[in-house]
Amino acid sequence: MTLHETMIEMGDQAVVAARQLATLGSRRKNLILEAMAEALDANRDRIKEANARDMAAGRAAGLSDAMLDRLLLTDKRMDSMINGVRALIGLKDPVGQKISRWIRANGLVIYKVRVPIGVIGIIFESRPNVAVDAAALCFKTSNAVILRGGKEALESNKALVDALQAGGTRKGLPPHSIQLITTIDHDAVRELVQLEGRVDLVIPRGGEKLIRAVTEQAYVPVIKHYKGVCYAYVDEAADADQALAIVENAKCSRPGVCNALEKVLVHEKIAATFLPRLAALMADKRVELRGDDAARAIVPALQPAAAADWDAEYLDLILAVGIVPSLDAAIAWINRHGSHHSDVILSADKKAQEKFLDEVDSACVYANASTRFTDGGEFGMGAEIGISTDKLHARGPMGLEELTTYKYVVQGNGQIRV
User: Fold this and answer.
1) Of 44, 199, 321, 417, which one's alpha carbon is 20 to 30 angstroms from that of 189?
2) Looking at domain 3-223+398-411, which of 2.60.40.150, 3.30.450.20, 3.40.605.10, 3.40.50.450 is its CATH number?
3) Other CB atoms within 10 A of residue 284 CB
4) What is the per-residue pLDDT across 129-183, written as a single tens digit (0 to 9) for each?
5) Is the pLDDT confidence value at 208 over 90?
6) What's this model's pTM, rounded to 2 decimal places?
7) Is the pLDDT of residue 382 over 80?
8) What's the CA gap between 346 and 366, in Å, rounded?
9) Is 256 helix (H, G, I), strand (E, B) or coil?
10) Does the bond joining 393 to the residue before it have cis omega, within 30 degrees of 0?
11) CATH 3.40.309.10 spans which residues of the chain?
């Protein structure tokens, strides 16, 4: 069977599964989710062994420390995945929810009702936990899913999906509800995103190169999760100790994820006192600082920042620092150079906070909190499918509601249009 034929078959199987999933009630779906969580736990050793093979291959291939961190499955991360699946059990099933209802003068009763999207293709890199998050979220919303992970996580993804399928099947998971593309042939991505009539939506998660390639090749709708060039603006009214703690957390806790901080803009009135403290803290955390001319005049040890630095997503222990003359200048700079993902103002000035939150055009905007909170679990959504930087059909962390669409249900008693 050719790759094209294989992908057509997967698409056809997913369409059948999606129709079966649409008939499952919330109670049955929750029983299946619990069985999936139990299977992940029961197969923990097998999954970690598969991950160890991926990690060894990744080291041999020269993957960066940040990429290896994204790939690694520890017991803590396994627990987080399992808890994420179980968290979905406690969340309200959006499928069938009546969004609105109204009655026309002619007596027609019209309902706007949430329904599954259908078949969703998820293309992702490095992080094997995405396989579990995506599968569980799509299942809870009665969507069939076709997963395509990166070759660096192939063994981990196989083990995870096998566990999900085995656990779910015991409680009535329809066949082919969760499928994994196991070929490493790059053409598989093109075939997936061109399955018109079989795949209803594609969600790519990974680097900018992947997302642009998917968007350029796709015949089906794509929700883009572009790079996370997250900015912090340290206002003249910032609490310096608090600001330093937030920058440290946002940059250093997990530098290889999309909600990690990549840039810091400092108001010129506090730069002389704040920047040396920031430089000392980042040096202690082994973070390379790159500064503009004004920042380097205060801390000469900073590496010079090139023009490309202000638009770059490092996903590593690198941070660019610049000085701005005003809040307005910071907002303008972030709207121009940020990726509209997550940006934060660090300030005790309520009016400055409000202006920043109103005028920065990003999916998530913060006042005095780490950008690392941009996450479905942290937002109370349970697991997430990703962080959309689009404005349509979803924006920010994509949870259950974002994996549904809607239809209009019209109840009549014989009305005809005249």
Assistant:
1) 44
2) 3.40.605.10
3) 10
4) 999 999 999 999 999 999 999 999 999 999 999 999 999 999 999 999 999 999 9
5) no
6) 0.86
7) no
8) 9
9) coil
10) yes
11) 230-373
